[in-house]
């Protein structure tokens, strides 16, 4: 498999001087095409900052990110907009990610308009219907408001919106943490299917190693801004090397 | 009547919403008991009626809910036949609740200490409240100084500890915990679960635990009732249900929990 994203010595620092917070410290890793790469750690460890830096929602302070052969850490303007077609994001809280006063389909039409995809409104609406099919939602539901959907359905809508630009990489920041286990299992299955059908790669950010074990190929464990352990997901879970990984493992309720 | 062994007995409880063709039987002929010092878990997916069952115990249900039958026996009386005034005397003092979202369960403009003190003012007259607040914070392993902190200054885990301290302020006999760790990180969840287990022993607390996660059930509960569409479809001792689930729905719920060591070809499977 070819390398899709290479991250080298990436740093994210918020604030200045004495008050600065070093959220991401010298992080290096790569993601291959069609791979699901897990990033685990507890709240405040820097995993979301890293995810946001990759989508360029946060600017990295130093370091290099190479996506499909291009250095993307310093992109601006038109080039940055083009990059955003290839890397998209899904957030934890599907309730907070949709405008309550906008029909969900229109939220997706907007994305297509901004990026000038589709010739006219009819074509864009047709594209929305296809996207709804691909995430397992009824096409007619696209013209309803967010409050008419359950949490799991809303997360499917957010995934459909992220897929609208046919990205190669999806950064999913705790996409199932706010969901019931039964709904969580459905969304995990959907993500797996998108990988198989479209060759989509994922950076899957989570605090739960059990979830990561069930969907990811490789995993990096993050602690205090640094990656402390990285490897095949089965290896890391069956033979954890770092003390912090062991602590995370022992926190998972099991039966 | 409650027997000597049980602190709470729910018998044939039915709670409905809506009328005629539109009737939703949120709780449909449900019976369960919580023994003294015991933890009972009600498990089910969203919409199964587990939260409405828990809220029914002190009639905290939404206004639209109709009690269609059954009784809730606590302390020798049927809670469903008590007046609002009598219920207020029991809520918070003998039966208290902790909820899923610690962030929205506190009033953002008052300090934590003020909010814990409110419960003491209502139910425990004539004690030194300052001392009691620091004792309660101590019980949940938080430093005294946090009494003067506002909710936004604390993490989710700290807030959930405060909520537990507040719930324990009047030494209740029964604690109802409605998805107390769902909004938390696994590491913080572990701390809160350990704390609840420890407290239930230390102060001999009976706990009714509402959850969708069988992993948590296995950690905390002595007995478990599995709910589906308003009915209890399976019940028994926790170990027994986990080791040998009888109902298909129970098996499906268990299969949906992600495991650290999935069986070969396993992974999580969604509900049918």
Structural class of chain A: alpha/beta
Overall average residue pLDDT of chain A: 94
Q: Span between N and C termini of chain A?
A: 36 Å
* Biggest chain-to-chain interface with counts: A-B, 33 and 38 residues
SSE-based structural type of chain B? alpha/beta
InterPro entries (chain A): AAA+_ATPase (IPR003593), ABC_transp_ATP-bind (IPR050319), ABC_transporter-like_ATP-bd (IPR003439), ABC_transporter-like_CS (IPR017871), P-loop_NTPase (IPR027417)
GO molecular function (chain A): ATP binding; ATP hydrolysis activity
Pfam families (chain A): ABC_tran
GO biological process, one term (chain A): transmembrane transport
Structure overview:
The complex is a heterodimer of chains A (255) and B (272). Chain A is built from nine helices and ten strands. With 255 residues, chain A is α/β, with parallel strands linked by helices. Chain A has a domain at 3-92 and 167-251: 3-Layer(aba) Sandwich (Rossmann fold). In chain A, a hairpin with a 2-residue loop joins strand 9 (218-223) and strand 10 (226-232). Chain A is globular, with a radius of gyration of 18 Å. Chain A starts with a strand and ends with a helix. Chain B has two domains: 6-94 and 175-255, P-loop containing nucleotide triphosphate hydrolases (Rossmann fold); 107-169, no CATH class. Helix content of chain B is 34%, strand content 25%. At the A-B interface, helix 6, helix 7 and helix 9 of A face helix 7, helix 8 and helix 10 of B.
